[in-house]
Amino acid sequence: TGQTSHTPCVNVTAEGPVARFQSYLHGGTSSLVSTLPTVIVFPVYKTVFRQQIHNTPVHQAVGQLYKEGPVKLYRGVVPPLLMRTLNGTLLFGLQDSIHHQLSLSSQNVVSASALPALAGFGAGIVEAVVFTPFERVQNVLQNGQNDRQLPSLKSVLVKLKAQRMSSGFYRAFLPITVRNALGSSLYFGLKGPVCAVVAGQGLSPVASSFVSGTLTSMAISLALYPLSVLVANMQAQVGAEKKGVWLCWKDLWRSRGRSVALLYRGGSLVILRSCITWGITTAIYDLQKKSSD
Fold first, then answer.
1. Residue 66: how many other CB atoms lie within 10 Å
2. CATH number, position 276
3. pLDDT band (50, 70, 90) for residue 118
4. Best exposed site among 47, 125, 194, 231 by fewest CB in 10 Å?
5. Are 14 and 100 in contact (CB under 8 A)?
6. What residues contact 72, with CB distance under 8 A and at least 6 apart?
7. Is 58 a domain residue?
8. DSSP 8-class letter at 236
9. Which family does it belong to (predicted)?
10. Residue 240: how many CB atoms within 10 A of its CB?
11. Which domain holds residue 105?
């Protein structure tokens, strides 16, 4: 299904176990390369996080980070670096494997054009199971209010281990699963068609993939941004009251004055981060995939 190997937009299912293994390898490699932009834009991400938690304008969030100093600026950068590399390996590889199985078992049942999105949905669920603990640790580390009580990564891990799974490492698992499953489904379902449209404008294969990844991830980030805000607020504290998803959402909506604009505070910076990281990841992955076909 999807595009043939000579087109710039790669959306094919690899044949054979070796070829499918390459999808894991290509996904990991492309994400590893994009960790450099992740480090560069980490202060941007942390600024967004502070806006999500404290509902502050961007200049106040920047002021908080400036006062804390350069050492604490990169506190919490290790989990996203690990997540970027492992996430790409798992996400692209699993999507390709699931896509392959679906194409064999669902002939004439599911439209071929819908298979990438369906496979992405399944990969997103597995992604949530594996990476929710990483995100939990990252959000605890990034919350400046935890610096005194939990000064190191080890102290955070020990504290979370002492909690129940649902309130410790897997706090906010449900909204993360919804966000990741929908996001992965939309990404794999849209990036091929978007890339084909962009390529039709005369751009090079690499440029087409980059623009496709950028536009797709931008749209997804904005659509699912409220879920990311909810997750950040649910995961930032350790040992606080253990409200459920619905009550946490009501508290969040109330704290934002029932304003969509305030709920999306920091959303413009998410666009910047998505443009850099997912644009590069998509371009490198498609280039590697095309070269190996």
1. 10
2. 1.50.40.10
3. very high
4. 125
5. yes
6. 65, 144, 147
7. yes
8. S
9. Belongs to the mitochondrial carrier (TC 2.A.29) family.
10. 9
11. 17-292
